[in-house]
Amino acid sequence: MGAYLSQPNTTKTSSDGGNSNMSYGFSAMQGWRVSMEDAHNCIPEFDEETAMFSVYDGHGGEEVALYCSKYLPDIIKEQKTYKDGKLQKALEDAFLAIDRRMIKEDVIKELIQIAGRPTEEPPAEKVAEEDDLDTEEASLLHEEATMTIEELLVRYGQNLNAVKHADGSEEEEGDSSEMEEEEDTEEGEEDSEDEEEEEMCLPGMDGKEEPGSDSGTTAVVALIRGKQLIVANAGDSRCVVSERGKAVDMSYDHKPEDELELARIKNAGGKVTMDGRVNGGLNLSRAIGDHFYKRNKALPPEEQMISAMPDVKVLTLNGDHDFMVIACDGIWNVLSSQEVVDFISERINKPDENGKVRVLSCIVEELLDHCLAPDTSGDGTGCDNMTCIIVTLRPHPSHQPDDTKKRKHPEELDSSKRDPRGLGY
């Protein structure tokens, strides 16, 4: 079924936690996809004053998303601007800093390890393998050189009579071919511009895939410090705040066809195809990784075809703000921001069948199931990986201090690939 399973994997990894000021619930589900490429952070005690929540939606593999989940929190703290209290600038600096790491040799090796891809064979083994192929080819050529034309035709599935018939009508077909060539030439001249646009080199077309170059991730990161909510976003994952039940978008989906994004892509030497893809490949215009699209040495990182520079929005929180939702596009492609806020609002303070207040992660699990497509016969909506975090901007009744739980099948995750601190999926 191509990129999809025959049946969806609906096993969910979920957790709840919080502190004296807020509560969170999280859940993630692989769904119809053949692998899980999302990651996240839920860190209510990021430092003494700050909480951090984030979602990373990987593409081309899970490795860049997992790497960001593991290292981006510390990279944010390492920024001088963070230490100086300039959180907006610190997030911009951190996004660009972790993106620069993706082309370092030691990081590429770690990404390969995370991805579970085999390392390259030693040169000696490669040479031996190539020698074997050369020997086989030479033997085959020698054998065919001693065969009759009839034997060769039998070997390659041709019929001698068909060839003779073709010889008899050679002149007629030749005239027809000339006419077709003339028509093709005229059509070729008319469509040459379209063909040029389609002749684009895509990641991995050379037969070699390199993590961080041919793979990447979106990143939406929310920091809460006191009454300030600071959200940085690169890609099409999204953060939304509920203000008395009204959805307030705290991020902007970066799509190649958008005016500002398109101008940057073209200025960097790229194109956007009719289906909204950069050079026929990525269908988003900002991401961490994807250095295949970041090779214009005349331009700074923030002006490349695909940029890791995030947009940053700030909101001063007050009593009208109920909760925040951070999720990947597996959710937002199915429901609008307002529909997600409505879905959560209907459940967040209402008791379950046992009369108890719903646990936040259970609400997220309901949301994931609601967004899951019944099959893969449609346009792909509801067939993606799904990851979502709900953060109440005051303690939730279902949350007990220091009560964090996780639910997952033991076989679902390879712990060697995950952050030992348990921060990332």
From TrEMBL:
Keywords, sorted A to Z: Acetylation, Hydrolase, Lipoprotein, Magnesium, Manganese, Membrane, Metal-binding, Methylation, Myristate, Phosphoprotein, Protein phosphatase, Repeat
Gene Ontology BP annotations: regulation of cell cycle
Top-tier EC class: hydrolase
Catalytic activity, EC: 3.1.3.16
Gene Ontology CC: one annotated term: nucleoplasm
SUPFAM superfamilies: PP2C-like
Keyword Lipoprotein applies: yes
GO molecular function: metal ion binding; protein serine/threonine phosphatase activity
Bilayer topology annotation: Lipid-anchor
Pfam families, A to Z: PP2C (PF00481)
Stated family: Belongs to the PP2C family.
Assembly and binders: Interacts with NOL3; may dephosphorylate NOL3.
Name of the protein in its database record: Protein phosphatase 1G
Gene expressing this chain: ppm1g
